[in-house]
Write a structure and sequence with these properties.
The complex is a heterodimer of chains A (316) and B (248). Chain A is of the alpha/beta class. Chain A has 11 helices and 14 strands. The longest helix of chain B has 36 residues. Classes of the chains: A alpha/beta (316), B mainly alpha (248). Chains A and B meet through helix 3 of A and helix 1, helix 5 and helix 10 of B.
Chain lengths: 316, 248
C-alpha cells in the first residue's frame, strides 16, 4: 500500500472545531472537529449526504457555519487572502465550456492575481496530460479530461493547500493512477497539504495518511490511518493450513487458549488471540493435532471493514 | 486588471462564442427589425412624404422613433436571450460555485454577469441604431433640409435607453443570481413587450417623443426606479444564497 505522510506533520493547516450547520430541519453538520496537518493527504470519508460537501463549502467560504471555528493556514476561512492560498477541485468541474484549456487556466490565474507565463501554463497542462488539447475548448473534452483540467486549474496559482472533492469521479483507471501519482508528487515533492474528500474507500486507503470519517453530520473517527487500521486488527492472525480444520479442534482451541475463531475456510483460519497468547502456541497446538500449518500472517483490517464496523456500531 | 473586469471579459467571451446565442440573437433581431422597418416606412414615413405640405417635425419624429425602436428591440432581445441560459448553465455546471470559491465576491459575480449579458446587446443595438439614423437621415431627412440627429434624439436613443437596459440587466441578475435564474429572466421577458407597447402608445398620442426631453424624463425615472429595486435586491446577496440556489 502506498501511503503519503513522509513529510513530518508539524503544523495544523486546516482546523475545524465544533462546527455546526443546519439547513432548515436538517442538521447537516453537528459538532465537526478535525485537524489537517502540514504535509498530510487527509482523507475525508463519508457516504453521500453525510456532510462532506457542506464541510468543504464551509472551508471554501461558500457557506457560513452556524457555530464553531474554521481556520485555514491559521486564518479564518472567509478571508480573501486565505482563499488565495487554497486550490480546490469541486464535485462539478466549473469550467467555461467556450474557453480553451489555456484560456480557462489564464482566467482563473488572473482571479488569483497571478499571470503565469506560457511556459508555466504549458508545464501545468503537461502535468495533467492535456498538452495536445491545450487550445481546444473545454466543452469538447471528455469527463476525465475535464477533471484533469480542473486539477490543473486548482494548481494554477501554486496554492499551499488543496481541497479536492471527489477528484477521481468519472476518470478511467489509467487516469486515476496518473492523478494519484500527481497528488502524491504534490505532497512529497512540492510540500502541499491535501484534503481529499471521497466515498471511495479504496482511493482513500491508497492515498491518505490520515482520515476523518463523517456520518450523519458527525465525525465518527479521525486520526492516523495506519494506526486506525492497526487498532482494528490487534491480535488478529490468519493461518494458512494444509486442509480445513475440524470443528472439534477449533472447540478445543477456544477452550484451552480463549481464542476466538472466525468461520474456517478450506485452507485458512482467522483467529483473534487474547493477550498473552503467542502465535507459536497456536501453531504448536495445531501441529500436535495433525494440522499442517503453511503460514501465519497478522490480519490486516481494510478501511472497508473499519467503515462497516463503525456504521454497525452506530446502528447498534 | 480588477477581478470584475477579468470576470466580465471571460463571461462576454463565453457568451459571444456560443453558436446558439449568436444564431438566436441574429435571426430573431433581423426578423423583428425587418418587420419594424416595413411597417415604419410604409405606414409612417411614406404617408408623411406624400402629403402636400411636409410636416418636418413629424417626419423627424418618425425617423427618430424608428431609430429608437431599433435600439430597443436589439438590446431587449439580447437581454431576453442572454439573461437566462448562461446563468442556468453556470449554476448547473458548477462554474458559479467555482468562481465564488476563488477571491471573487458575490457582488463581483453579479456585476460581471449583468454586464456580460447586456454589453453585446447594447453594442449591437447602438451600432444598428447609428446605422439606421444615418441611412434614414440621408434618405428622408437630409433631402428635406432636416438635421439627421438632434441632441434629445441622441440622448434618448444612444445614452438613456442603453442606461435603462443596463439597470434592467443588473436587476435581472440581482434576482436571478441568488435566486432562481428563471425568475430574473421573467423581468427581461416582460419588460420588452410592455415597455415597447407603452412607448408606442404614448408616442402615438404625442405624450412623449424621441426628439423631446419628455421621453428622457420617462427613461430617467424608470432608471431610478429600477436602481432602487436593485439596491433592495442586492442587499441580501450572499455567497451562501447563491450556492444554495445552484441546485443540480
Amino acid at each position: 500500500m502506498d501511503k503519503g505522510g513522509t513529510v513530518e506533520p508539524t503544523t495544523a493547516v486546516i482546523e475545524l472545531e465544533d462546527v455546526k450547520k443546519r439547513f432548515g430541519a436538517l442538521q447537516a453538520l453537528n459538532g465537526v472537529t478535525f485537524t489537517v496537518e502540514r504535509g498530510d493527504i487527509f482523507g475525508y470519508l463519508g457516504a453521500n449526504g453525510a456532510g462532506k460537501t457542506t464541510t468543504i463549502r464551509i472551508l471554501l467560504d461558500l457557506l457560513r457555519a452556524d457555530s464553531g471555528r474554521v481556520s485555514v493556514l491559521g486564518d479564518p476561512a472567509n478571508r480573501v487572502e486565505t482563499r488565495r492560498r487554497i486550490g480546490f477541485m469541486l464535485d462539478a468541474d466549473g469550467l467555461y465550456d467556450q474557453l480553451t484549456a489555456v484560456e480557462n487556466l489564464r482566467f482563473y490565474a488572473k482571479l488569483y492575481g497571478c499571470s503565469p507565463s506560457a511556459g508555466e501554463i504549458a508545464a501545468l497542462l503537461a502535468s495533467v496530460r492535456l498538452s495536445d488539447r491545450a487550445n481546444d475548448r473545454a466543452g469538447t473534452y471528455s469527463k476525465g479530461m475535464r477533471r484533469r483540467l480542473a486539477l490543473a486549474r486548482a494548481l494554477v496559482h501554486d496554492p499551499e493547500v488543496l481541497i479536492l472533492d471527489e477528484p477521481m469521479s468519472g476518470i478511467d483507471p489509467t487516469g486515476q493512477i496518473e492523478i494519484r501519482a500527481i497528488i502524491q508528487d504534490l505532497v512529497h515533492e512540492r510540500g502541499k497539504t491535501i484534503l481529499l474528500s471521497s466515498h471511495d474507500l479504496d482511493e482513500i486507503e491508497r492515498l491518505c495518511n490520515r482520515i476523518a470519517l463523517i456520518d450523519q453530520g458527525e465525525i465518527r473517527i479521525t486520526g492516523d490511518l495506519k494506526r486506525l487500521l492497526g487498532a482494528g486488527s490487534e491480535g488478529q492472525i490468519t493461518i494458512a493450513t494444509s486442509a480445513a480444520v475440524a470443528p472439534a479442534i477449533l472447540a478445543e482451541l477456544r477452550d484451552r487458549f480463549g481464542v476466538e475463531a472466525g468461520a474456517p475456510g478450506s485452507a485458512t483460519l482467522d483467529l483473534k488471540l487474547p493477550a498473552g497468547v503467542r502465535n507459536a502456541d497456536i501453531v504448536s497446538f495445531l501441529a500436535s493435532h495433525g494440522v499442517g500449518v503453511e503460514g501465519v500472517a497478522a490480519k490486516h483490517t481494510s478501511l472497508e471493514e473499519l467503515y462497516a464496523a463503525i456504521l454497525k456500531e452506530r446502528e447498534a | 486588471m480588477t477581478v470584475r473586469s477579468v470576470l466580465t471579459k471571460a463571461a462576454v467571451r463565453d457568451l459571444a462564442r456560443s453558436r446558439s446565442y449568436r444564431a438566436a440573437f441574429v435571426v430573431i433581431s433581423l426578423f423583428f427589425v425587418a418587420i419594424l422597418y416595413v411597417i415604419g416606412v410604409r405606414l409612417l414615413i411614406t404617408p408623411l412624404l406624400s402629403r402636400p405640405t411636409l410636416d418636418r417635425e413629424l417626419l423627424a419624429g418618425a425617423v427618430a422613433g424608428l431609430v429608437y425602436c431599433t435600439v430597443l428591440i436589439i438590446a431587449g432581445l439580447s437581454l431576453n436571450i442572454s439573461s437566462t441560459q448562461p446563468l442556468i448553465r453556470g449554476k448547473a455546471s458548477g462554474s458559479i460555485e467555482s468562481l465564488l470559491a476563488t477571491p471573487v465576491a458575490a457582488r463581483d459575480l453579479w456585476f460581471a454577469l449583468s454586464i456580460a449579458s447586456i454589453l453585446p446587446g447594447i453594442l449591437a443595438g447602438v451600432g444598428a441604431g447609428l446605422v439606421a439614423a444615418v441611412v434614414l437621415g440621408v434618405l428622408y431627412l437630409a433631402p428635406n433640409g432636416i438635421p439627421i440627429a438632434t441632441p434629445w434624439m441622441v440622448a434618448n436613443c444612444f445614452i438613456l435607453l442603453p442606461g435603462v437596459y443596463l439597470m434592467l440587466a443588473f436587476l435581472v441578475h440581482a434576482v436571478g443570481v441568488p435566486g432562481r435564474a428563471t425568475s430574473g429572466a421573467v423581468i427581461a421577458q416582460v419588460f420588452l413587450p410592455v415597455y415597447a407597447s407603452l412607448i408606442i402608445n404614448l408616442g402615438a398620442r404625442d405624450v412623449v417623443a424621441v426628439t423631446r426631453p419628455d421621453l428622457a424624463l420617462v427613461q430617467l425615472g424608470l432608471t431610478a426606479a429600477v436602481a432602487a429595486l436593485i439596491v433592495a435586491a442586492v442587499r441580501g446577496m450572499t455567497k451562501e444564497r447563491i450556492v444554495l440556489s445552484c441546485k443540480r
